[in-house]
Amino acid sequence: xxxxxxxxxxxxxxxxxxxxxxxxxxxxxxxxxxxxxxxxxxxxxxxxxxxxxxxxxxxxxxxxxxxxxxxxxxxxxxxxxxxxxxxxxxxxxxxxxxxxxxxxxxxxxxxxxxxxxxxxxxxxxxxxxxxxxxxxxxxxxxxxxxxxxxxxxxxxxxxxxxxxxxxxxxxxxxxxxxxxxxxxxxxxxxxxxxxxxxxxxxxxxxxxxxxxxxxxxxxxxxxxxxxxxxxxxxxxxxxxxxxxxxxxxxx
Length: 251
Hints:
Blueprint: H1 13-22, H2 24-49, H3 58-69, H4 78-98, H5 107-130, H6 136-160, H7 171-179, H8 191-214, H9 216-239
Helix pairs in contact: 1-9, 2-6, 2-8, 2-9, 3-4, 4-6, 5-6, 5-9, 7-8, 8-9
């Protein structure tokens, strides 16, 4: 005969973990939106603090590069070009690491996001040590690692495949938002995720600009914290197991 004392133990923590697992799609959306916000912060730091360079928005770098090569005044060409190749380098690494595993959140996903967070944290520390806007050689080194981290993040987010949220650009999201709207004859769309991605990358850029007033390192530090928290929560949701149901007591 089973006794109540022999039932599987339960804790207040178990329902929380089960909710994380059952609402995994919503959690992935929330985490990718958080990373979209942090990308806005990083891009503000790159453009305003690292000589007009975008670490995440490669469209912006290509446009700046084209104008600079055409002879436009006061526009850099080497920084955007370096960021473009660094972003591709990070994306290549992410693609190779994730190629053998199925789409979704895996242990490799967690490790890659963790690497992104650690790189951002290291860059933040370096910026604090340098004491402000870095001199030219260091500026290029920081640009390379910042853009590489964003490329790695983008490739990892692409593997998770949350629709309309790439974490690094919103051009396609804005296109979908407008093209699928009622004004365009659409009957419905995932408007929340699209609107949230647009608003959050702008909000992140605004916060990055404000933090730049205090110190260039603060924005990168905030992005590092957001990324590491996202990696942790995603890993917990992907790997937590449902608790075994308690055995009913005999009457």
